[in-house]
Amino acid sequence: MKYYFYIFGCQMNEADAEVLAGFLVNMGYSEAESETEADLILLITCCVREHAESRVYGKLGELAKLKQLKPSLIVGISGCMPQQEDVAEKLRQRFPYLDLIFGTHNLPDFPRLLAETEAHGGKVLEIVDAGEVRENLPRVRQQSIKAWLSIMYGCNNYCSYCIVPYVRGRERSRSPEAILAEARELVGQGVREITLLGQNVNSYGRDLALGTPTDFADLLDAVGKVPGVERLRFMTSHPRDFSDKLIEIAARSPVVCEHFHLPVQSGSNEVLSKMNRGYTRESYVELVRKLRAAVPHAAITTDIIVGFPGETEDDFRATLDLVREVAFDSVFAFAFSPRSGTPAADFAPQLGKTEKSLRLKLLLETANEISLARNLQLAGTRVEVLVEGPSKTNSERLTGRTRTNKLVHIDAAPGLIGQLVEAKITRIQTFSMLGEVIGGER
Ligand code: SF4
Prior knowledge:
About 35% of the residues lie in helices and about 20% in strands. The strands form five sheets. A six-stranded parallel β-sheet has the order 2-1-3-4-5-6, sandwiched between helices. By secondary structure, the protein is an alpha/beta fold. β16 and β17 form a beta hairpin. Among the domains are: about 120 residues, Rossmann fold; about 60 residues, CATH 2.40.50.140. Bound molecules: iron/sulfur cluster (SF4).
């Protein structure tokens, strides 16, 4: 029996997919090379933006034909989409061929749900609310060199545009002991880079029992001290909760990488307030200043939403100014897409598609110019690269990442995959660079 996944959205879904794969392997399944050879196809979905949802609907339409050709095929859908109110039922009605529908919170029940689907010839729908964190779930890691390590689930922030708290539930932190045990296990398996994962890692531990003296800074410190951890990253950070203690620990730890992803979302205080982000443009700039003072060559990346309801020309200009002022290493920008059930979906005025696209284009042009300028500063320098695998665009090259998370292509033999090498940067582009290995393999 073979399974095939379509994974949409963020790293949370990639981490969930590893657990689902773990269950399936325990049940005797193996991964299919393509959907046509699969006995089970699962869509692990995202509803954070309209675009991701449209792609899921498109794929569901395509799979209807495959299901007709192969009626024994089990098609299931999970992730954030069915977890939204009423959506599971709507999916069932619109795509009656779906065999299995479940949400983000009943992932641990997947073996039972699949067994019921197999026993009853399909048509199982179960959505539950968030419960306790469940440990010791099986997992098939997607990569052997780098690993996600989930430290918490859910989010309490209720940013006015965001659906995540409604579909992932309130914050639930894993215990420090469980996280440290998993970090040790990963090192034992040869993993060289760990990314601590959560919707807002900076609020880690607030929900743990009184007397647990662990905040995120303590946790980062503790994981960084696990023998054998060579590179440590974390995401996502909420700028409001990034403490001075965290800056100090990130600066002094030899394994915490010099890259901080700090979603700012807007450069206008008016818009930030409507977004319910809990910080101002000034406090954000001050945070970046402190980070750069403590970690001089840090790369700072961000997420920005353009065309938030009521965003004026002046608000948008303030965002462009902020991008220039901070000089981000890279910007992930999106046009606002209203999510049903969130406050911002009902804010007025909603901006038109053309206006939003124009602003997005302008923002990306500005951000890309700055990314190129930041990258040019690395021309001719020596950087440490963790070699991850063959380049997707040129099979003769390998590709890897610097500690600052820059993508580097190198001309080198496949034997270097999984190695930390020293490379000299020979060519610069906006989104990647070319390097030449000059040694330091380990
Ligand atoms: S911090 Fe805000 S944007 Fe991020 S997941 Fe939580 S509610 Fe969504």
